[in-house]
């Protein structure tokens, strides 16, 4: 719970913004966003006030999983541009005082990657052991019961070489064999390539998948499986993910990063808190920020959220730095999960909790999940399990910039349809409206960045009941704040019984409240959040 004493590094103080490149800005009228488009929007990102941009994959790829199936780790997909575009973008991002974080996908390649093409060519190919090849069981069936996240068995039969290979995702995404030192070295070389080009860090895809049980034991059946769940949840992935050896791999990646100046690594990890925090590494030699996804799945309930924040704060190892996420390209958007009014409260929570916040593009204008007709669904997760409503397309639609054709995203037909209401919900319009979500985000970002208590101070839990959540952020020699969030639609009365709560409201979801003096009790309207600057 204590803030650390040493000066904070950029990835601790800064706010990260995730760009999904296909959907941010098209510059060459092909209906798909690209690097040059992102470059043209650097000014916008600067005006928003964020300091680090994470790009989802921009590499060469057959796009079976929209870039998470890489066929060349050091090449740019022509849809996104070329290496000159990349160099230009990174230079401009750096000139604007911001950082650039790339996606790294070490768990699997595309089946079109030269490594896999070689590996599958014969059993004695030198790259055979770069992937996970196993014999069929005596009856010809798959080696074990492991399931693919995108439906069906995780094993694919290869006619030519008469063995199965393992793929945790699509069959077009074979998993690499991380027990092979050559694979490890090859991926570290990929990291070196981009670090030498100046990238400031990586978001590491499915970090907890990277190594699997060597004995290939069957996963246990999940007794809690319900029909609406993805089919892979029929078993509990105890042998196919989160193996003890993964931490040695993460440590190797970290050691490499530490040979460069202030580079960082975020781990994509969907695990319960006690297992998640292991990814910081013993003695902080693991991921700098194992993504904390709890706000994506917790019921929107003040007591449950308060308890989980405490659990997280309590589980963090010494010197481990927390982080918070409200959305990403795999999850329904926050506005669709909790509603537009509560999304404002959620923004206040994200930007006042202790730890690095990551904002998903478009959340800052309250973009909602866009209904995509079945004939237009592109996401393999949606296509493979059509009865379960699992498509991730609704949260990946083009950024809504203005009320011109296609919201200013493209002059061509966009790769994914836009929200029908983009002429009302867009950046240009919200820039002119002081009550907009965009203004709220900008003001929260600014306040966070100029307040040591918010970017670096302690977290002190104050209160949680059926409606409100309250906490204090406190720093030495700088103003402290009490944040009170009404997570319900009904008015609530809040009295600080334990902590003095004397001060002035400096930021509120309803700006009318700003400037109001608070003694020790406040009445909040439904969906209201306030930040009180406490009297010293
Ligand atoms: C996690 C990524 O975020 C997701 O989009 C992708 O489908 C899987 N990893 C497989 O790479």
Automatic annotation (TrEMBL):
GO biological process, one term: oligosaccharide catabolic process
Coiled-coil blocks: none
Family (UniProt): Belongs to the glycosyl hydrolase 13 family.
The protein, known as: DUF3459 domain-containing protein
Span of domain Glycosyl hydrolase family 13 catalytic: 18-396
Keyword annotations from UniProtKB, A to Z: Glycosidase, Hydrolase
Source organism superkingdom: Bacteria
GO molecular function, one term: alpha-amylase activity
Annotated CDD domains: AmyAc_OligoGlu_like
Protein's UniProt keywords contain Hydrolase: yes
KW Nucleus (keyword) present: no
SMART domains registered for this protein in UniProt: Aamy
């Amino acid at each position: 719970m204590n803030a650390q004493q040493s000066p904070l590094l950029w990835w601790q103080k800064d706010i990260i913004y995730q760009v999904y490149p296909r959907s941010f800005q098209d510059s060459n009228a092909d209906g798909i966003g690209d690097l040059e488009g992102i470059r043209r929007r650097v000014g916008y990102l600067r005006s928003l006030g964020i300091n680090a941009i994470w790009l989802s994959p921009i590499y060469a790829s057959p796009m079976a999983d929209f870039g998470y199936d890489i066929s060349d780790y050091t090449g740019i997909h022509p849809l996104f541009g070329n290496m000159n575009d990349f160099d230009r973008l990174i230079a401009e991002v750096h000139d604007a005082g911001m950082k650039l974080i790339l996606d790294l996908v070490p768990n699997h390649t595309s089946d079109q990657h030269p490594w896999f093409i070689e590996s599958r060519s014969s059993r004695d190919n030198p790259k055979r052991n770069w992937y996970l090849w196993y014999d069929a069981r005596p009856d010809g069936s798959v080696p074990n019961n492991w399931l693919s996240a995108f439906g069906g068995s995780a094993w694919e039969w290869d006619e030519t070489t008469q063995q199965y290979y393992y793929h945790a995702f699509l069959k077009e995404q074979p998993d690499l064999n991380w027990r092979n030192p050559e694979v490890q070295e090859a991926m570290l070389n990929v990291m070196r390539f981009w670090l030498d080009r100046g990238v400031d860090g990586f978001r590491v895809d499915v970090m907890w998948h990277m190594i699997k049980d060597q004995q290939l034991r069957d996963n246990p059946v999940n007794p809690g499986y319900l029909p609406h769940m993805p089919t892979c949840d029929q078993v509990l992935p105890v042998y196919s993910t989160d193996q003890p050896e993964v931490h040695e791999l993460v440590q190797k990646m970290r050691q490499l990063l530490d040979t460069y100046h202030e580079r960082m690594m975020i781990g994509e990890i969907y695990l319960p808190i006690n297992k998640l925090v292991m990814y910081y590494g013993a003695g902080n030699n693991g991921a700098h920020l194992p993504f904390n996804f709890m706000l994506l799945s917790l019921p929107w309930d003040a007591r449950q959220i308060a308890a989980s924040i405490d659990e997280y704060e309590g589980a963090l190892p010494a010197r481990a730095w927390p982080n918070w996420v409200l959305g990403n390209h795999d999850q329904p958007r926050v506005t669709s999960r909790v509603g537009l009014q509560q999304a404002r409260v959620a923004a206040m929570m994200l930007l006042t909790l202790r730890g690095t916040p990551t904002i998903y593009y478009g959340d800052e204008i309250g973009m909602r999940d866009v209904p995509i007709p079945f004939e237009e669904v592109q996401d393999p997760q949606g296509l493979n399990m059509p009865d379960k409503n699992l498509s991730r397309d609704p949260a990946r639609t083009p950024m809504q910039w203005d009320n011109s054709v296609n919201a200013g995203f493209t002059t061509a037909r966009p790769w994914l349809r836009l929200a029908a209401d983009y002429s009302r919900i867009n950046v240009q319009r919200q820039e002119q409206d002081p009550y907009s979500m965009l203004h709220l985000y900008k003001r929260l970002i600014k306040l966070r960045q100029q307040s040591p208590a918010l970017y670096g101070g302690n977290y002190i839990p104050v209160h949680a009941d059926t409606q409100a959540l309250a906490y204090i952020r406190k720093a030495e020699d700088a103003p402290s704040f009490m944040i009170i969030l009404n997570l319900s639609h009904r008015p609530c009365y809040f009295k600080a019984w334990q902590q003095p709560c004397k001060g002035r409201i400096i930021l509120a979801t309803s700006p009318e409240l700003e400037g109001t003096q608070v003694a020790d009790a406040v009445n909040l309207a439904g969906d209201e959040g306030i930040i009180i600057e406490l009297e010293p």
